[in-house]
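USER:
Working in pairs, take the chain set out below, taking as long as you need, and write a paragraph about the fold.
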Amino acid sequence: MSYRITYTDRARSDLQAMPRSVRTDFEGAMRKTLGRDPYGHGSEPMKSREPDRRIATVHAAVVRYQVTTGLVLMVTALEIAHLY
């Protein structure tokens, strides 16, 4: 299945606040983990009634995200909290 990773304005701002090398590694980790298996990688639903709104740790950051399925699987980062 094809996938696409997008960022809300808030998550894009969080992403831009990362040092360039960390941001590059983070984006690669997003593609390799949540992009390929958004329900895996140790992710958990944010609320039990909403399994598509999830939270996971990806390359030194906690990511809150939404999964949307269709012709293309969409992973939308809602917020990124840096752990460094």
In short: The longest strand covers residues 73-82.
